[in-house]
Amino acid sequence: MAKMYYEKDCELSYLDGKKIAIIGYGSQGHAHALNLKDSGCDVCVGLREGSKSWAKAEQAGLKVMTVAEAAKWGDIVMILINDEVQAEVYKKDIAPYMTEGKALAFAHGFNIRYQQIVPPAGVDVFMAAPKGPGHTVRSTYVNGKGVPCLVAVEQNATGNAYKIALAYIAGIGGARAGVMETTFHDETETDLFGEQCVLCGGVVDLMKCGFETLVEAGYEPENAYFECIHEMKLIVDLINKGGVAAMNYSISDTAEFGEYVSGPRVLPYEETKKNMRKVLDDIQDGTFAGKWIAENKNGRCFFNSKRANLKKHQMEIVGEELRKNMIWGGDKDLDTASN
Ligand SMILES: NC(=O)C1=CN([C@@H]2O[C@H](COP(=O)(O)OP(=O)(O)OC[C@H]3O[C@@H](n4cnc5c(N)ncnc54)[C@H](OP(=O)(O)O)[C@@H]3O)[C@@H](O)[C@H]2O)C=CC1
Ligand SMILES: CC[C@](O)(C(C)=O)C(=O)O
Ligand SMILES: [Mg+2]
Ligand SMILES: [Mg+2]
After folding, report:
1. Atom 2 in ligand 2: which residue has the minimum CA distance?
2. Which positions are annotated as binding substrate (predicted)?
3. What is the CATH number of domain 4-182?
4. pTM score, two decimals?
5. Residue ranges of the domains in the chain?
6. In the chain, which end has fewer C-beta atoms inside a 10 angstrom radius, N or C?
7. For residue range 243-271, what is the model confidence (pLDDT) as tens digits?
8. What is the full DSSP assignment across 79-143?
9. ipTM higher than the 0.85 cut
10. Ligand 2 center to residue 33 CA distance, Å?
């Protein structure tokens, strides 16, 4: 059994007197900074000069400095910039200030697992990895709940790294939901696997296939969107609340029968698992990490063309229109216009 921690196991007082520098103000950055501030911590945000997020963070009542100033100021330096730029920014603006006794923190282990960042021996290195999107880390915190987190310690120079990591996770609200102890190694591999095979890669392709099949067969795109995309969340919410049993309890018996009959037809079980195993092999042996690092060095041609094509996909265009006209007008927190 994995070791689990909850609020009763976390002492927020381990953050007393500690200055916390959050580097980056994107999905995770804004959530960590605001949740920690609301938990009574001394927080600043470190951003590049000219950052579009600078005014946003200040308007939210946060101290903002350059990345180097924040790294110098902070006792805990949490790196919440994109994985692919972390090594470069770390080397230039953070490493010079990682003096003995400080803590370097991550929300995902990519750069430690694949040795892109090698911290000095005298600092604590811990992970507070929410198992959910940053915007949800913020919205659940505001609603008195939290997103489950993984905790890991790569270096325990002060002897207090676990206590500090758990306090940090309590500060962002994660301990309200549960904290599982793991390693940087395992978090990195399982997180990459989950997002590629199931949560993002798997789900998006499944929805896209469903949408296209209905539209190509002559049904209205709006119907295909409601059926294969909008309803996905409503169904997954039931699984999230009470497991597959709760979904099966709420859906019709007709749907449950179809689940058993047609699920294995669209997703041939053993073949899919074999393919997933290959994806996992690439993650474990560093092939995927190497590809992602090379893609960034080479100007992100593949990534950018995929992103542009997706934006033009009918399911995205139809969905945007339908969401705009829902009475609540979509989710204002998720401004994707800048992407
Ligand atoms: N997205 C998520 O929900 C999750 C992310 N994580 C991890 O959290 C970390 C942050 O990811 P995420 O929140 O998605 O990141 P985002 O892409 O949402 O935000 C990135 C932030 O980094 C800043 N930034 C980008 N490049 C630079 C640079 N060269 N110098 C200085 N600042 C820079 C951006 O600045 P600007 O505002 O100026 O553009 C922005 O504020 C990653 O390690 C990721 O794996 C872990 C769990 C879930
Ligand atoms: C599922 C994607 C994720 O791992 C996350 C939100 O947990 C990420 O890297 O953003
Ligand atoms: Mg991830
Ligand atoms: Mg994740």
Report:
1. 195
2. 252
3. 3.40.50.720
4. 0.97
5. 4-182, 194-324
6. N
7. 999 999 999 999 999 999 999 999 999 99
8. E-S-HHHHHHHIIIIIGGG--TT-EEEESS-HHHHTTS----TTSEEEEEEESS-HHHHHHHHHT
9. yes
10. 18
